[in-house]
Structure formats: structure tokens, C-alpha cells
Design a protein that fits this description.
The chain is built from five helices and three strands; from the N terminus they run H-E-H-H-E-E-H-H. It is of the alpha+beta class. The termini are far apart.
Length: 85
């Protein structure tokens, strides 16, 4: 990736950081995935989103919550739960 493209990406990320609601393109950039992956998650109803006409919007707070919703337990947490049984 050349310097100009990298600077453009950083600029877009800075803009996204100041927004509460993102477009699908912005959500993909925010999550570091492709737009196709976002569309797949939408079709499968795996990611929270809103629809206005044909456009999809994503609340950053809900995306952050969604990203951290399936916490994997550490070995220590697993051992603690096992000890409670």
C-alpha cells in the first residue's frame, strides 16, 4: 500500500472515530473487514444495523458491543467455573 493510500485510510478512520452512526463502507473499515463480509453479516442478521431505504447504517456503540459479546474464557476462568461445580 503506497503512502497516499495509507494517509487516506488514516484520514477516513479519524472521521469515523468522531461519528456515532456509520455507513456499511465505514463499518467495514472500522472493523477491518471487506464490504462483502459486512453484507454477509447483514444478510445472516449477525450484526446489528438499521435500514433507511436501501442504505444500511450501523451504530458504533452497538458494533462495539457486538464485537465484544462472545468473550472466550481464559483457562483461569474455566478452572474457576469448574471448581464451582
Amino acid at each position: 500500500m503506497d503512502l497516499e493510500k495509507r494517509l487516506e485510510r488514516i484520514e477516513r478512520l479519524l472521521i469515523i472515530m468522531n461519528k456515532d452512526v456509520m455507513t456499511a463502507d465505514e463499518c467495514a473499515l472500522y472493523l477491518g473487514v471487506s464490504l462483502d463480509r459486512i453484507n454477509h453479516l447483514v444478510v445472516e442478521r449477525e450484526i446489528p444495523y438499521y435500514k433507511k431505504g436501501s442504505r444500511r447504517f450501523f451504530k458504533k456503540s452497538e458494533i462495539n458491543e457486538w464485537m465484544t459479546s462472545k468473550k472466550m474464557l481464559t483457562n483461569e476462568e474455566i478452572a474457576a467455573k469448574a471448581a464451582q461445580w
